[in-house]
Design goal:
It is a single chain. The chain is an alpha/beta fold. It has one domain: P-loop containing nucleotide triphosphate hydrolases (Rossmann fold, 3-Layer(aba) Sandwich), CATH 3.40.50.300. The chain contains seven helices and ten strands. The strands form two sheets. A six-stranded mixed beta sheet has the order 6-7-8-3-9-10, sandwiched between helices. Strands 2-1-4-5 form a four-stranded antiparallel beta sheet, with helices on one face. A hairpin with a 2-residue loop joins strand 9 and strand 10. Helix 5 packs parallel to helix 6. The longest helix has 17 residues. The protein is globular. The model has no long low-confidence stretch (mean pLDDT 90). The structure holds adenosine-5'-triphosphate. The site of adenosine-5'-triphosphate has 11 residues, from strand 2 and helix 1.
Amino acid sequence: MSILQASGLIKHYGKGSSAVRALRGVDLEVQDGEFAAVVGTSGSGKSTLLHLLGGLDRPTEGKVLIRGKDIYAMNDDELTIFRRRNIGFIFQQYNLVPVLNVYDNIVLPIELDGNRPDSEFVSHVAETLGLTALLHRLPGQLSGGQQQRVAIARALAAKPSFVLADEPTGNLDSATSQEVIGLLKVTSRQFNQTMVMITHNEEIALMADRVIRIEDGQIMEGRVYHVSKQY
Ligand SMILES: Nc1ncnc2c1ncn2[C@@H]1O[C@H](COP(=O)(O)OP(=O)(O)OP(=O)(O)O)[C@@H](O)[C@H]1O
């Protein structure tokens, strides 16, 4: 079953002759539980695509359906709530709150949403990511790889069905990157989460179920997932 369907996505920044045509008609389907990587040269439109798939911006034209729901038919407030409840985001910058310990960072978005964290689930996520012994530390007392694992735990703790990651290993060395992506793969399987991840790193991309290649605002390869491929 497809969790996400994007059709005819066009994004222009600015207007008139100086407009940048960042996406030029993107059609994409992502299956439930899939782990997909988006690759392409700098400026090809990867981040623009990810932002549109996650409801962080609005397209100039086109639609994004998540579980059949047309996310851009919602107003800004509805979209913010939908995003918070259904989508986890992981960025290159970890964006942890320096004065909060690891546990409080992980549950912060849930508490900001007025909910109580499912402490059993949070413990399970923390354990899977090797964070159990670090829960009382401050972010400043952690390595880059550990901080990114906290950011991943934070993205997963609210049990989103869909996780979007923009260069999640951009600040990490290659061994740590492979480890973090390995963990992302494990968590996506274990918690049944669909993952779309941008990466510059071809080795990292090969760890995904599918590689979506984007060039000059268009998808050149990997638009549709082939069920015959093993996953
Ligand atoms: N807010 C913006 N205003 C104007 N132009 C933008 C904006 N954001 C992106 N662009 C332009 O849109 C095009 C696609 O940018 P995007 O960030 O999606 O590419 P990318 O593939 O993610 O690049 P990188 O790998 O360098 O992050 C580029 O030409 C970029 O300069």
